[in-house]
Design brief:
Layout: H1 14-27, E1 28-36, E2 42-52, H2 55-65, E3 68-71, E4 83-88, H3 89-99, H4 107-120, E5 126-127, E6 134-136, H5 139-156, H6 166-170
Helix pairs in contact: 4-5
Amino acid sequence: MHQDGIASRPAWDLFTLAYVGGILDGEGSIGLQGRKGHKGQQYATPVVQVTNTFQPLVYWLRDSYGGHVYWSGEKRIDRKPCWHWQVAGAKSRTLLHAVLPYLWLKREQALILLELHEKQRHMYLIRDPFDGRIKSYPPEYHQLTSAAVAKCRALNRRGVMPSDDPSVVSQM
């Protein structure tokens, strides 16, 4: 066991991946985040985030799967400090592929992001001949991305969803 209270387990064994899938289902968020690339080009990257008050957990996630940890800056005395772990891009896709069999609640979001990446990687992107950076994205890139963002936002929306039916869990 580490001095911070988290067991030192291999990050990619099946039991640990199942545990991480459960953490993502309960404490996580899976979606797309807008970014600006070379010369102001807009694009979206997949992002996996976990928010938790147990600091060693978020640092273990960072050490095991990459990404960054930051503190929420909560200053109210009636609230516990909260930490956020976030991983984006290729590392988040690798993690989503690994935990996909163990996701229940966030499975749809993970599938949307993985499917989007699969479609986008087959698109023709105009690259700068000198540095290889993407110079422009085709219109279909933005259409696919916008549709994926809308789907993830709908799934991540707070409150009761029309499909929030206890019988759905029994069908899983």
